Amino acid sequence: RAIIDATKGVPRDLRAIKLMTAPGDSLALVGSGPLFNPNNSHMVRDATRELVRHDPKGPVRELLTSHFDFDYVCSNPPYVGEKGHKELFRSTRAALPYWNRHYQGKMDYLYWFVILALLKLREGGRLGFITTSYWPTIDGATHLREFILENALILEIIDFGETRIFEGAPGQHNMVFVLEKCPSTSPNAGHLDGMPNSANIERKQKQQVKIAKVKAVPPAKRGDKRPPLARVIDHLASLMAQTAHSDEYVDIHMSVETQGEFGSGPWTALRPSDATEEVVSRIEAQQGRLRDCFESFQGIISSADRVISRNIRHLSGGAIAEHGIRLGDPIFLLTRQELASLGLAGHDKRLVKPFFQNVDLGSYAPEKAPWKEDNFLIYTTRKTRIDEFPGIERHLAKFRGILEYRLQQYEEKYPWFSLHRERDPLVFEGPKIVTPHYRYLHPFVYSEGSFYTSDENYVYKKMPGVKEDEKYFVALLNSAVTDRWMMRRLTKKASGYEMLSQRMESVPVHRIDFGDKHEVAQHNRLVKLVDEMIETKQALADLNQFFGSRLTRLSGPDELPEAEVEAVTLSLPESAKRRLRNHPKVEVKPEPSADFVLTGIGEIGDAADLFTGRRDEDMYALRLNGRGRKIVDIIAPKEILKYLQKVLPKFKGKTWPEIKEIPLARDLATYKAKEKEVVSEARSLLRKVAATQSKIDAIVYDLYSLTADEIATIEAPHS
User: How many Cα atoms within 13 Å fall on the side-chain side of residue 142?
Assistant: First the structure.
């Protein structure tokens, strides 16, 4: 049916072109030899790649394989990154060795499809792809960018921004791009690599890329039933012939730089040419780089934190039964309770390190996530003499099948008990800067104690000879200037801006001239302000419990959420608390028996028919449903019942003796006083955060010699 529908749109003079489907592995269309040669190893691969020998569509695939002169190639290739799918990439490279030459670490599977398309086109043929929008700037796509520059003319790029192309992929950023096959070399029998094609090279040197950026979806007019994406596409189609256009829905412009100025690094020419770009570019031209001051390290990778469905199959049934192994059991990563259950001796505990993950990073300072248990890591390395730590060896030996499989999976030779990537322990000790994988507000954290962390985070250690204090760099990196740089230079993905260390090494940083008294004073002021910020943030972290959120990631008091009633109530001194069973303003009708088990909580209703004895204030009722159709009504003022509505869901499945011990504030005035105290303290600390950050930004503006107009550009709302 798809073929028939497609044929309807083909002009009559092109109807001779046959449209056919041909199932098979697209990547096998290059470098695999004849598809139907019985000796072709391609024919005996695993079932997911198997090609049917006597399929009537065989000649179609043979045609696709043998021809490299197609006019058009269109594709929506698979969006699969290497992270989490290493086995897919490994099996593809083993089954199709040709693609090893186009492999790059941290690449996406779709890159091979772009290369495949360019290989299959004739010179002058065109390629149109829908992909994610990250490859023009991310580090794992340098080979793809080199291949495109060598073999194609970049005609158009349409960045759909936040407009969703695929309903099933929220947060994904997509682009459409059009390339023309334009190789820099021409085949020549006397030259293995071909002869330079000067005409094509000159075309690419002069080529400007048409760039369209979708900003918003045009509204539907009366009677317009088109979906949002269709409205965007129709609006774009009516404008793409223009070389420059801007309205509230799209921007269209030609790249400032020509394709000849592009390199394998991030294609900065695809960025908009505006005031922000001018400021960021000037700062980059005049400042040093983070890589000149710090060495970066990724956190620890165990490759076996816990027992999961994917690795338990590498344990024998006997081992599972003997040790009672279950999904979720700890291997290298343990909670405090799990660690205690091992009963390790003091000597064994030398290999146990407090372990921090992405959620344990605060803002300016480390901050344990309030909802998360403490974690500990068994830190075994290639140099560990495991027989000297019998408790650790006994624990890890239960999972030896899983741990030994890692050696086969990753083609490694480290001892079976070692972490997969342990890193040098000195990385995690002493002064350091720690950053998360994705940007949030002020994400650079200063730590000077032990901070063993996962590969979700990066650790930056200052190089010898760098005189500036680590806290000085924390101030620069958490400033508005660096924040705007990151929004312009980092790759935006669904979870935010990726702070990959390869990209962060290019962050511009001002180096202090220690012969300049003014600069030295500014350096020292920034160090002091970071100390003040850390102290303030730590005080804010103590208040997280009252708000159910991380106050340290807020920029000011206007963002403060409401205080949580339960947390405020629990913080009251015992003299200011009562229990549900003895609060003077609460009655329970009828008195439940000890075997009452809560199954449901109703809505707050009028208590007039249930309780009429008290007249000093309005009373309401909250109905509780119990097992066996039992019913209990709690009669109290509305504020108390609202509180109980929030608390009682945690007590589903609990009996009445447990429920009746729920704490309540002695009276509303007592509760309100405590709530006011908590909120007032939080607002005061957030005002201090905002004021301190403003002082930091002002000093950084001075160090970077920004003008008033440039400061206004940096501080303008980001679009």
Answer: 10
pLDDT for position 548: 85
For CA atoms 603, 609, 610, 615, the dihedral sign is positive
Classify 118 as helix, strand or coil: helix
Distance (Å, rounded) from C-alpha 202 to C-alpha 340?
70
The angle, 0 to 180 degrees and rounded to 10, between the axes of the packed helices 668-703 and 517-541 is 160
| pLDDT at 36 (0 to 100) | 35
Contact 433, 459 (CB under 8 A): yes
Instruction: Specify the length of the chain in residues.
Output: 719
Alpha carbons within 13 A on the beta-carbon side of 295: 9
CA angle, corner 510, sides to 506 and 516, nearest 5? 160
Parallel, antiparallel, or unpaired: how do β-strands 375-378 and 333-335 relate? antiparallel
In the chain, the largest separation of any two C-alpha atoms, in whole Å, equals 107
**DSSP, res 431:** S
Contact 332, 392 (CB under 8 A): no
**Preceding amide of 590 cis, omega within 30:** yes
Distance, CA of 296 to CA of 461 (rounded, Å): 7
Close Cβ partners of 86 (under 8 Å, ≥ 6 residues apart): 409, 410
**Token pair listed for 711:** 């400061």
Angle 75-78-79 from CA coordinates, rounded to 5°: 120
The answer to whether 213 touches 270, Cβ cutoff 8 Å, is no
pLDDT of residue 51: 44
CB 485 within 8 A of CB 285: no
Rounded distance between C-alpha atoms, residue 182 and residue 198, angstroms: 11
Tell me which residue has tokens 């073999």: 151
Residue 234 and residue 219 in contact, taking contact as beta carbons nearer than 8 Å:
no
User: Helix 480-489 crosses helix 275-286 at what angle (to 10 degrees)?
Assistant: 110
- Bridge partner residues of 460 (DSSP): 296, 433
Would you call 411 exposed, middle or buried from its count of C-beta atoms within 10 A (0-12, 13-18, 19+)? exposed
Q: Give the DSSP H or E segment for 60.
A: helix 58-66
SS3 419: coil
Place of tokens 């000297």: 388
Q: Strand 587-589 vs strand 630-636: parallel, antiparallel, or unpaired?
A: antiparallel
Q: How far apart are CA 625 and CA 172, in angstroms?
A: 44
> Which of 453, 434, 686 shows the shortest CA–CA distance to 550?
686
Calculate mean pLDDT across residues 607-635. Answer: 79
What confidence tens digit (pLDDT) does each residue in 15-51 have? 455 556 667 788 988 876 443 333 333 333 333 444 4
- d(Cα 488, Cα 210) in Å, to the nearest integer? 19
In the structure encoding, which two tokens stand for residue 455, read together?
Answer: 């590969």
Three-state SS for 145-212 is HHHHHHHEEEEEEEECCCCCCCCCCCCCCEEEEEEEECCCEEEECCEEEEEECHHHHHHHHHCCCEEE
Tokens of 636: 């109290």
Specify the amino acid at residue 1: R
The residues, ordered by sequence, that sit 6+ positions from 604 with a Cβ below 8 Å of its Cβ are 620, 621, 622, 638, 641, 642, 645
Q: How many CB atoms lie within 10 A of CB 105?
A: 9
pLDDT tens-digit profile of 213-245?
999 999 998 888 889 999 999 999 999 999 999
Instruction: Provide CB contacts within 8 A for 508, sequence distance 6+.
Output: 283, 284, 286, 287, 288, 289, 482, 485
The H or E element containing residue 597 is none
Q: Is 307 within 8 Å of 326 (Cβ atoms)?
A: yes
pTM: 0.77
